[in-house]
Write a structure and sequence with these properties.
The termini are far apart. The chain is 37% helix and 17% strand. Strands 8-9-7-10-6-11-12-13 form an 8-stranded mixed β-sheet, sandwiched between helices. Strands 2-1-3-4-5 form a 5-stranded parallel β-sheet, sandwiched between helices. The chain contains 14 helices and 13 strands.
């Protein structure tokens, strides 16, 4: 038997079960040969794509930590398969092509594919990809559980009220659903979630991001703080440090993988962190609440973000107009919709009294009856699937008038 050279760039302790889907035998064998260089990678070859998309993605997600797809064979079907696999949020999906086609690569990456290789494979790129795939694995899921629903609050620009909305939404979600809910503050180097909720923490998300190799369920339990409402919080640092935490997408990916196996709902205050767009934070299955205000710069930024990052999203992109006051608008609703390229799903009213009370007492807005509290609770109920169906569809995507 011929000797297969070992790739020393991959640590010995890394083991991965990989499914290789390649109808073209020549290309598939070339990829399989590259995988054989890694002793901890166990590869199972599939010589054809599944005839139906419904069942195989679920089966592959359960049996394999990574799936590699031939993007050249039946490109549209390969794309649909990749998109379906990425939607479960637990499988590290890669693709390969014999062509250096940037448009093809971007299309697959936007669907959630984590790595896109061009043949012949670069051994260093493959080794690095396997290291990244291995770091995404978290503690085994609870029996009978599925990955938590992920809700990400993203601001069109600073000052839109992302942290206030994310904090109060997460609290309302925990209360309304009575399910295990976690709020993560990625507002680095310092964030305001803890202040918004009136809590003090000894540890922060920096602990997790600086030590991804140590991150497991036990470590997570020591750095998460429980709010009096029952909401779990992984806050940002309360002060600047000499060594600010790295927010590499691999560290963020591992944190999300672990927390989504531990909680029922995970809510993330992402600030305006478009630098994390390549991480699982923005995977297709995540619900993105894009927060903006009705102003020239805010609507312009929102338009650019939607066009650049979310043009292909439908229901999983929720536009939130914060501090909305129809009597003071410079634009009518048709102009706002045109600027955003789609209607806004949520309108959070401008309630000065409630905002002032929050600043003076550091108490969450939803703890006191107000128009803002009512709006946010409706968002939370919709997210938890607690609103009645209307016209055959959930109220999750209806307007809040």
């Amino acid at each position: 038997m011929p000797h297969v050279p070992r790739d020393s760039a991959v640590p010995d302790e890394i083991t991965l079960n990989v499914a290789l889907l390649g109808p073209d035998e020549q290309r598939r064998k070339a990829v399989a040969a590259a995988l054989a260089r890694h002793p901890g990678v166990r590869c199972h070859e599939f010589s054809s794509f599944p005839p139906k998309l419904e069942d195989l993605p679920r089966m592959l997600a359960q049996a394999y930590e990574a799936v590699i797809i031939d993007a050249d064979s039946e490109p549209d079907y390969a794309f649909a398969l990749a998109e379906s696999l990425c939607a479960n949020g637990r499988t590290y999906v890669m693709a390969y092509s014999a062509k250096a086609d940037m448009k093809l690569a971007v299309r697959f990456m936007r669907a959630g594919v984590r790595e896109f290789f061009t043949l012949p494979l670069d051994p260093a790129e493959v080794s690095a990809a396997f290291v990244r795939a291995s770091t995404r694995r978290a503690a085994p899921p609870r029996e009978g559980s599925t990955a938590a629903k992920l809700f990400v609050f993203l601001g069109a620009k600073g000052g839109c009220g992302v942290t206030t909305l994310a904090s109060n939404f997460a609290l309302a979600l925990a209360q309304e659903s009575d399910k295990n809910t976690l709020l993560i503050d990625l507002g680095l180097p310092i964030g305001d979630v803890a202040i918004n909720l009136g809590i003090v923490t000894d540890y922060s998300v920096a602990t997790a991001l600086q030590n991804p190799h140590r991150l497991d369920a036990n470590m997570l339990s020591t750095i998460v703080v429980r709010h009096s409402s029952g909401l779990s919080v992984l806050a940002a640092p309360a002060d600047f440090t000499e060594n600010p935490p790295s927010t590499s997408r691999d560290a963020v990916d591992k944190l999300l993988a672990l927390t989504r196996e531990t909680y029922d709902f995970v809510v993330v205050d992402a600030g305006s962190r478009v630098d994390l767009m390549g991480s699982t934070l923005f995977e297709p299955s995540a619900v993105i609440f894009l927060v903006t205000q009705v102003g020239v710069s805010e609507l312009r930024n929102a338009n650019r973000m939607i066009s650049r990052f979310f043009a292909a999203r439908d229901e999983n992109l929720q536009i939130v107009l914060n501090r909305f006051k129809s009597s003071d608008l410079l634009f009518d609703e048709a102009q706002i919709t045109k600027a955003l390229t789609r209607p806004a799903q949520w309108k959070i009213p401008d309630d000065y009294a409630s905002a002032r009370r929050k600043r003076e007492t550091a108490a969450p807005m939803i703890m006191v009856d107000s128009a803002i509290a009512e709006s946010i609770r409706w968002m939370a109920k919709a997210a938890a699937g607690l609103l009645p169906e209307k016209n055959g569809k959930k109220g999750f995507f209806s307007f809040l008038r």
